[in-house]
Amino acid sequence: MDTMMMFVGILVLICILGFFNEKVTKLTYEIALMLFSSILGILLLVGISVVENTDIVNVLKDVQGFDIHEFLMHGVLCFMLFAGSCHMQLKDFKQQARQVTVLALVCTLLGAAFYGLLIYGAGMLFGLNLSLPVCLMFGSIIAPTDPIAATGILSKFGLPKKTSFLIQGESLFNDGIGVALFVCFSGMVSASSSSEDGFVGVMLREIIGALVIGVAVTVLCFLMYRFCKHAYLKIFISLLTVSLSYVLCEALHFSGAIASVVCGILFSELRSRYSAYEEEQHAEIFDSFWETLDVFLNSMLYVLLGLSFVSVLKMEYVLLLSATAILANLIARVASLSISTLVIGEIPDKFTRFGFVALLTWGGLRGGLSVALAMSTKDMLPEQTYFIILGCTYAVVFFTTVIQGLTMKPVYNRISSRHRTA
Looking at residue 58, what is its pLDDT? Predict the structure, then answer.
């Protein structure tokens, strides 16, 4: 399909579904887009089987076969991460550095391992040909929580400030950890040289390299930003900052995701320090641009995820495996959080340990990154295994985004009333 036609089609759906939700269903915006797009995707699948017009069939297949991995990992991810982090303050990270680090690193590592082992056991029980490295790779796909969902969905439920910051901070930084894990385990699966450095080597390279690139590029670009007098040129400089950091990291095999977050936080810190020298109108234009771009790119991603949801139907034993994947995700999340809270230090906002684990388990939404990583395994796995991983990933993403997202507020209210100290 022509790129412009695809863009127009997605934009039509964003506007129509968003307008319908605003006037009728009044659900959380991102959840509504994914839910209604999923329903539409299933209807389109049915349409493919009954429509005989070849042109229409080809259009429907093009829409549902859209490469989300290419769109996200080699396209808009850096801008979405920058937009989500460019309003966060460095002082908040300093105050909760230990908690964010434990959740982003320890919890992600444990979550990937627990999920992989659970799926490996389920595979043996169901007679599926899933090796342990494949299952651990699958765990690295599912373990990272989604920063887009965290900032776009959870931020609207009035969570306490420190807890909300922890959920967002974990989601922003564990992407890089998850990708590093994915590199290690996918190297084992494909028996490539990707795993020669081992996990520690890959992790250090991904994180330290991303920090160096992110800081260096941001400081250099901010010198232009600081002395620039044109409001729109300031925006262009911020776009250059994050995109250049991401491209350099990808070329050097560092974590572009972590570099994008570093750029956003450091840019926010530098802007706050030099706010006296920035015109108020320029600051408003800057903030409005990144907020609008963030919402637009999120909208595109949720529509694409919804339309592609029918991929889960290509999986054998679809209901059994979907339920298994969702249950394994919840068990792995509870287990990894329970262990992480032993070293996390003070539990924020007066939650009990049980209440904190329960809240972050239900608030651990998954999103586009998991789907993109799952799609990238197509060339290294047998077709049946690939569709199992892709289908289960979609099942987990749909459940956490729609079901957990829709019920997050009542769950939080119940946990808050029962598991917070006076």
Answer: 59
Residues whose CB is less than 8 angstroms from the CB of residue 390 and which lie 6 or more positions away in sequence, other chains included: 311, 312, 314, 315, 371, 374, 375, 377
pLDDT, position 194 = 46
DSSP per-residue letters across 214-239: HHHHHHHHHHHHHH---HHHHHHHHH
Query: How far apart are the C-alpha atoms of 164 and 241, rounded to whole Å?
Result: 27
Which residues, in sequence order, are CB contacts of 129 under 8 Å at separation 6+? 123, 382, 384, 385
Residues paired with residue 351 on neighbouring β-strands, in sequence order? 420
> Are the C-beta atoms of residues 244 and 219 closer than 8 Å to each other?
no
Place of tokens 């290294």: 380
Element spanning 175, H or E:
helix 161-190
Q: How many CA atoms lie within 13 A of 252 on its CB side?
A: 20
CB 195 within 8 A of CB 380: no
To 10 degrees, what angle do helices 132-142 and 368-375 make? 150
DSSP β-bridge partners for residue 420:
351
How many whole angstroms separate alpha carbon 280 and alpha carbon 286? 10
127 burial via Cβ count (<10 Å: 0-12, 13-18, 19+): exposed
Give the whole-angstrom CA distance, residue 42 versus residue 63.
12
Cβ count near 34 (within 10 Å): 28
Least confident of 24-28, 159-163, 226-230: 159-163
Give Cβ neighbours of residue 101 (< 8 Å, ≥ 6 apart): 173
Q: List, as one string, the DSSP characters of 337-402.
A: HHHHTTTS-SPGGGB-HHHHHHHHHHT----HHHHHHHHTTTTTS-HHHHHHHHHHHHHHHHIIII
Long-range contacts at 65-69 (CB < 8 A, ≥ 24 apart): 66/6, 66/304, 66/307, 66/308, 67/375, 68/301, 68/304, 68/305, 68/308, 68/368, 68/371, 68/372, 68/375, 69/371, 69/372, 69/373, 69/375, 69/376
Q: Name residue 340's beta-bridge partners.
A: none
CA pair distance 57, 55, nearest whole angstrom? 5
Q: Are the C-beta atoms of residues 258 and 100 closer than 8 Å to each other?
A: no
d(CA 101, CA 107): 9
Q: What is the pLDDT of residues 206-227, one digit of tens each?
A: 788 999 999 999 999 999 999 8
